[in-house]
Specification:
The protein has helices at about 5-20, 35-45, 60-70, 100-115, 125-130, 135-140, 150-160, 235-250, 255-265, 300-325, 335, 340-350, 360-375, 410-415, 430-440; strands at about 25-30, 50-55, 80-85, 120, 140-145, 165, 175-180, 180-185, 195-200, 200-210, 215-220, 220-225, 295-300, 350-355, 395, 425, 450-455. It is an alpha/beta fold.
Length: about 450
């Protein structure tokens, strides 16, 4: 159950501050992702603005996505939510990112280029990572329409370089097959794969089909094929890297570990961890800021984000130095991530909403303590979100839901005393029907639309 009326009133005042053009606004009192998501969705509806939410981890971003989708279901126009996960893989461990992460990131960047999502969810490492530019990610996918020309050979080459795997027959997302003038492909944003038939270089037919039976289920007029990874590579790119790496890492200590990689690269083949080494010859020219315009950044607990980033920057520098000293190879952090100065400059001109559960006073105290305890000249913080600006602050109190532990009478009494201020979120239709029966038995009227089927993170 969620108390809603007071929150909605408070959001009206918050929306007025956002509309007035205040660069930084602070919100205190919200202690759960559920309450934060409710407020942000209300704020989106009231202002028509788009929001980029910086949260502390991929797991937290998943919770935000679930809760925003739930509350967005009540809107006349449900919001679009895109989550750009970070690479949780240590870039200096010689290990490639998980295939699912590659797929999710590529699809998110593709969606950010071709649409204007209402919410973008970013963990800190996704915020600071260098990446290919919007123009480059846009060129990795393709839109096919009936009657238009497209070289099948170029399509196949593009699928291979952007991470699709050739398999016949296809049975999973990210696979494609070729039979004469017919190409089957399963793009990550589609529920079913498509069968594309060419007449010469003209798209003659596009049909969805069931991967279990391989039988067509219907015609479509067009298909959007998003990339499966944000790194487009061909065999010649690996060979170019092998030549450059031999010059860059010429130290005798690096010879063995380098050879383990160049043996594959010289054959035009990938090797474990190549995604974090190839920028030696194919520099990453973009950042997530290149994909975003006219947005408000929502910082979910700035002190948490700040301390996490500070630790990551320090650890990356230390790990890189240790790596080279041990005779391994790796690119300096600045080639893979924005520097603190670059990040600070990007954020200094951005519109921000800071979600500080304990408020600005507590944040300022924590900041003073961190600086006084630091042994480094510049303090222990990055000062990405300094408290000295003293932005307008709004308090919206959230509290944990009461737990009734099977005490149905107490539950019904509470619901009756808060009539009109509840949403009952049930995971299944059967559970929703059962709650309705319980309320009716205790003569509690559930307003229309107050019992809904859906899930929340907590």
């Amino acid at each position: 159950m969620l108390g809603l009326r007071k929150t909605i009133d408070a959001v009206g005042e918050l929306a007025a501050a956002v509309k007035s053009g205040r660069r930084v606004v602070s919100i205190s009192g919200l202690t759960s992702t559920v309450s934060k998501a409710f407020v942000l969705e209300q704020l989106r509806t009231a202002t028509g603005r788009r929001f980029v939410i910086i949260t502390d981890s991929n797991t937290s971003a998943d919770s935000w996505q679930e809760d925003l989708a739930f509350f967005g279901g009540f809107a006349d126009s449900p919001p679009s939510v895109v989550e750009l996960p970070s690479f949780e893989t240590d870039v200096y461990a010689g290990v490639s990112p998980h295939a699912e992460t590659l797929e999710r990131r590529a699809l998110a960047l593709w969606q950010m280029v071709h649409s204007n999502p209402d919410f973008v969810l970013l963990p800190p490492r996704a915020l600071i990572s260098r990446m290919i530019t919007p123009t480059e990610i846009g060129s990795l996918g393709v839109f096919l329409k009936l009657g238009e020309d497209m070289s099948p050979e170029l399509l196949i080459e593009g699928l291979e370089s952007s991470g699709y795997v050739r398999e016949d027959p296809i049975f999973n997302v990210g696979q494609f097959s070729v039979r004469g003038g017919i190409i089957d492909v399963w793009s990550p944003q589609r529920e079913f794969p498509c069968r594309i038939e060419f007449f010469g270089e003209t798209v003659d037919s596009i049909r969805e089909f069931d991967p279990a039976t391989q039988l067509s289920t219907g015609q479509v007029k067009s298909v959007e094929i998003a990339p499966m990874r944000e790194f487009a590579v061909r065999p010649e790119h690996f060979r170019e890297w092998a030549d450059a790496a031999a010059r860059e890492f010429a130290d005798e200590r690096s010879a063995r570990t380098l050879k383990d990689r160049t043996d594959f690269a010289l054959q035009g083949e990938s090797f474990s961890g190549w995604e974090f080494l190839l920028p030696l010859t194919r520099p990453l020219g973009g950042t997530v800021f290149d994909y975003l315009s006219d947005v408000i950044f929502v910082i979910d607990e700035p002190s948490l984000i700040e301390s996490g980033l500070k630790k990551f920057y320090d650890d990356s520098e230390l790990h890189h130095r240790s790596l080279l000293e041990s005779g391994d190879v790796g690119l300096e952090p600045a080639k893979l991530f924005q520097t603190p100065d670059e990040l600070r400059k990007q954020l200094s001109g951005a519109s921000l909403i800071e979600l500080r559960a304990l408020g600005m006073t507590a944040a300022a105290t924590d900041e003073e303590f961190a600086v006084s305890e630091s042994s480094t000249p510049d303090g222990s913080l990055l000062f990405l979100f300094p408290t000295a600006e003293k932005p307008p602050s709004f308090e919206i109190i959230s509290r944990p839901n009461r737990k009734f532990d099977g005490r149905v009478a107490d539950f019904a009494s509470y619901a009756k005393s808060h009539t009109g201020d509840n949403i009952f979120a049930m995971q299944t239709k059967g559970m929703a029907e059962r709650i309705e029966e319980i309320l009716r038995d205790y003569e509690v009227t559930a307003e229309a639309g107050s019992i809904v089927i859906g899930t929340l993170s907590g």
